[in-house]
Amino acid sequence: MSSNPSYRQGRGDAPPPVMSLSWAHEAASTLVRVCGEIDMSNAHHLADLVVGLGREETPRVVLDLTGVRFVDLHGVRALVEIDRLLGRAGGGLTLHRPPRCLTRLLRHTGAYHLMLDLAGDGRTGTLDLTADGRADTLDLTGDGRARTI
């Protein structure tokens, strides 16, 4: 967990939240925005929220991870579990602009399939690999089509 150097503890001051979540139901999916850190202290809250939202409306959930600055293995485990449970309900999980720390963990743990958007018939995905934060298209086949590895 990283520290926030701008936070100075004083009487009545509350520490900044480790993770914040917001969500909106859209046409064919639910968008969940995650900011902060996904770690052992809160990964289960993310999983509970996302799976619950998937039960309410559509089991298709997009996690906007633009504001995430840290993810540990507990976070990866939660994402894999979310994807599994939503898949059972006929939906799935899409990761939007995952941070570099997460893409590395997904690669090293074999959970790289979470980087792919398997909605619809086009197997495409995006991942944030560039230093300036631009999202690049993931092409795993060399012919313009992405596939699960």
Automatic annotation (TrEMBL):
Residues 31-110 form the STAS domain. GO terms for molecular function: anti-sigma factor antagonist activity. It comes from the Bacteria. InterPro entries: MlaB-like_STAS (IPR058548), STAS_dom (IPR002645), STAS_dom_sf (IPR036513). Signal peptide: none annotated. This is Anti-anti-sigma factor. The lineage of its organism: Bacteria, Bacillati, Actinomycetota, Actinomycetes, Micromonosporales.
